[in-house]
Amino acid sequence: MKLRILRFLDAAVEYAIYGVIFFIPISIAMIGIFAGMAIVFFLVKKILSPDFTSIKANKMLFLFLLFFFVFMGLSLFNSGPLVAKSLKVLLIKWGRFPLLLWVIIDTFQDTRRIVKAVCVFLFSAALVGFTVFTQKFFGFEFLRGRVSGGFSVPSIGPFQNPNGLAAYLTSVIPIVLSFSLWKWKKIAIKLCLLLITAMLIMSSFWTFCRGGWLGLIAGLIFVILVTNYCHLKKAFWVLFSFSYVVCVPLIGLALFFFQNRRDSYRFTLFHGAWGMIKEHPLLGKGIGTFMDYCALYTNNGGVFYAHNCFLQIWSESGIFSLLCFILFVGYVFYRSIKVSLRIPRSLNYFILIGLTAGLSGFLVHSFFEVHLYSFQLSFIFWVVLGLTAALSSSLEQG
Q1: Are residues 128 and 35 in the same domain?
Q2: Domain that holds residue 340
Q3: Can you give the pTM of this predicted structure?
Q4: Region 56-82: what's the mean pLDDT?
Q5: Are both 76 and 2 inside the same structural domain?
């Protein structure tokens, strides 16, 4: 009886995560419902059958994550009268994601499940691309039933704004592209996948979001370099470093060279964030307090995010918190690249490259936006990161 219950709970967690993936671009409410179901079923399963092997197999990853949360918690000492708000942000807004990460890494140790997850990504992304096209050509976005403007208006798809759509596409396009690079037996499947990829790239272009374009370029560079490693073996790390340390920043400068008035205020926000950092560089002003204090440092009455995830983490919770976050994400990249370069060209190989490239693109775009602070978009980051870590761990042990 217990074994049947555990099997049911395991399947329930798996399909709840598929629900999260499918509804990320479609419904905020459904994301919350399926994520909550996944966490509850998972915790019940762990109570009935305690098993922490997934944490032991990824102890460095969870150690960096633990330190990240410890330093975010220490920032509460600087929150002052906003300590109650900071505590709520720490426990609820950020606190759900370590649990979700554990759920994903533990549940998707079977690589066949990761293939299914990528197929769900593919289907959901195809719907998003199709609805962007109907929005452009027919003025109607069918997923939410919204009427939109013509070609001169940035596309938003099912999201609230173009930046949200761009962030989603930046993450999923490398996944779909890498999935299509596998040697499919039926040429029709490969052509269909490439067609979906082209549709999504065109949708990204129609967002007119330059940060999204830059993130997408970064993700595609990752796919090109890693999949051609055998031909670039002697110069791989030189080209890889050059692309990310030199090319990506230069492309970013080119994309942002011509600024409109809205863009110029981002630099005011950057300046405000730097003012907070100079005042409390070690522990920050308190997690979740940027919007409360930004007017004091920008001489403007508006309430805004920092438009840069890394600056906002630093200004709210300090340099140690930011460094732990970078080490946490960097460890995922390090292990993923290490595994990718030594395994044969299987379907899992291409999926791992696509997931890592999608994560790379999201983080590059995060230099110009604060997607980690968005309920909808934060899930795309943590889900992709969790699947990347799970697949890396499984292939490394195999």
Answers
A1: no
A2: 61-397
A3: 0.92
A4: 93
A5: no
